[in-house]
Write a structure and sequence with these properties.
About 45% of the residues lie in helices and about 15% in strands. It has helices spanning about 5-15, 35-50, 75-95, 140-150, 160-165, 180-190, 220-225, 245-250, 265-270, 280-285, 290-300, 310-315, 325-335, 340-350, 355-365, 370-375; strands spanning about 20, 55, 60-65, 100-105, 120-125, 155, 175, 205-210, 230-235, 255, 275, 300-305, 320.
């Protein structure tokens, strides 16, 4: 799948530190609503487990542990915990990892924190898992989240909303928004090369890349397509939920399917305006979209639904829409009125949030929880 914020961070840390990246173990097949979705998820997990452990780079090991892809059942959870602990300890032994800093983004790790000898636990809060519309067994999720919070030495929140949620805990809570592969997206935009994926798609293009789910506002997107017949709407991403049958039949809507991450910068460079089109709910309100800075690094104009993290900082540099009509008008406005000054400001914001700079700040935060000797052993990601 395309990289998450933690994927980016670990790849940068692995430039100078040994990293064991554990692929998610929280998939709950009982929560899949369709046979097609169930089949896809089983196949994806099977392919992942078959790989088990691989060395992606000199210092980066990726573990895809074997587990039973269900949760909430006491017996199955206990079996999975035993399996995970055994696999983790075995792999750590073989790669000579004795006292790792434990980095947690997936709260499923709550059940194994106590089994790993570590100098510090860092909890990277990128979402409100208890507010996710796809989450089953929310009582279990809330319990695990509370356990991770209590056992963490540092809590890093990627949005102001998440920071406000955790701030009462005390000084161990920090606000640090996402980083971006600035050089990658900037170089693609400056290269101005044509993208084969868009062959035959007429400009102007309003584009979006990312997994397509029921949380994308399909009604809003359908409305925008119909209201703007001379604009091509391009969607790059695997459809995992939601009914896209109606919009896919429109002549100006183009669905590219899943696009590998390495092709995304060139794709984005060929958009004329970028979209952040989600339904506004408790899940989205608390988020900080990773792709926002990727859009900015490309220099492209942007239209977004109202998300606090975006509206409070960047309302002068992109269009914030409160409904489908405003979103549709915002696309036309950005295509016609964006200027070089706004573009350069967006690029500069993205430049200041490169992953190298981001990882250096993270390293400094982590070091605050370590002894002087342990802190001196951490190397920056730059």
């Amino acid at each position: 799948m395309n990289p998450s914020c933690t994927t980016h961070i670990m790849k940068h840390l692995a430039k100078a530190n040994r990293v064991l990246y554990v692929n998610p173990v929280s998939s709950d097949l009982l929560g899949v609503r369709t046979r097609k979705g169930l089949g896809r998820r089983i196949l994806r997990k099977f392919k992942s487990m078959v790989k088990f452990i691989r060395r992606a780079e000199d210092n980066l090991f990726i573990l895809s542990p074997f587990f039973f892809p269900m949760q909430g059942n006491t017996v199955i959870d206990s079996m999975n915990n035993l399996l995970l602990k055994f696999q983790l300890r075995s792999i750590m032994f073989f790669i000579h990892m004795k006292r790792p800093i434990l980095w947690i983004e997936n709260i499923r790790a709550a059940d194994v924190i106590g089994s790993i000898v570590k100098p510090a636990v860092v909890y990277h809060v990128s979402d409100r898992f208890d507010r996710c519309p796809y989450t089953r067994n929310k009582d279990k999720v809330i319990k695990r989240e509370s356990e991770v919070t209590a056992q963490s030495d540092r809590i890093i929140c990627v949005s102001k909303k998440l920071y406000e949620w955790k701030k009462p805990i005390g000084d161990k809570v920090h606000y640090l928004p996402h980083g971006v592969d600035f050089e990658l997206f900037r170089a693609a935009s400056e290269k101005k090369a044509e993208c084969e994926l868009l062959a035959g798609v007429p400009h102007p293009i309003a584009g979006y890349f990312g997994t397509l789910t029921a949380e994308n506002d399909i009604e809003l997107l359908t409305y925008c397509c119909r209201e703007n017949p001379k604009i091509s709407f391009v969607f790059a991403g695997q459809i995992t939920a939601g009914d896209y049958n109606g919009i896919s039949k429109l002549p100006n809507a183009f669905f590219l399917g899943r696009v590998p991450y390495e092709q995304i910068p060139d794709l984005c460079a060929n958009f004329d305006v970028c979209m952040l089109p989600w339904k506004i709910n408790d899940w989205i309100i608390n988020c900080n979209p990773l792709k926002l800075l990727e859009y900015m690094a490309s220099g492209k104009p942007i239209v977004s639904v109202y998300i606090d993290e975006i509206a409070s900082k960047y309302s002068d540099l992109l269009t914030i829409a409160s409904d489908k009509d405003e979103f549709s008008k915002g696309i036309r406005y950005e295509l016609e009125h964006d200027d070089e000054k706004r573009k350069e400001k967006r690029i500069e914001i993205a430049r200041r949030h490169s992953w190298n700079e981001h990882v250096n700040q993270l390293s400094e935060i982590i070091e605050q929880s370590l002894s002087p000797l342990e802190a001196s052993m951490i190397k920056k990601g730059a």
